[in-house]
Each structure stands twice: as structure tokens, then as C-alpha cells.
Amino acid sequence: MSDSQSCQAEACALQTCLNKNTYKPEKCDERLRALYNCCQTMYELGGESAESTACPMSSVVKRWIKDHPDARAKKI
Which UniProt keywords apply (predicted)? Predict the structure, then answer.
């Protein structure tokens, strides 16, 4: 898979969920987290040269991950 296609499956799953839940986008939080986790991994592995049409800029991903800690991790 080329870099530009990284996280495409997660982005499509999020879009499908949002289309099905037009008035309740919070039902897609898990899909959104999956996309941002995928993007974070891509940036960590690919460094500065990593890019994908499915992912926002690295700084946006880092900020989102920081601002939205995984609630499941807190329960441990």
C-alpha cells in the first residue's frame, strides 16, 4: 500500500458511520479514534516524509490524541 493510501480503510469506515448516523455523530467516536490512531502510527513510522490523503497534518493528529485520551486506558 502506498503512503498516500495509508489509513484509507479507517477513513472510509468513519465516513460510512457518519452517513448512517447523520444526527448522532457521537456514535462514530470509535471510528474517529481508529483513524487518528492509524494516522499517528503512520507518522511515527514514516517520520516527516509520511503523508496520506486520509490523514490530517501530523500536528493536528498529535493535538487530537492529546486532547482525547482513550477512556478505556483510564479504567485499567
Answer: Disulfide bond, Mitochondrion
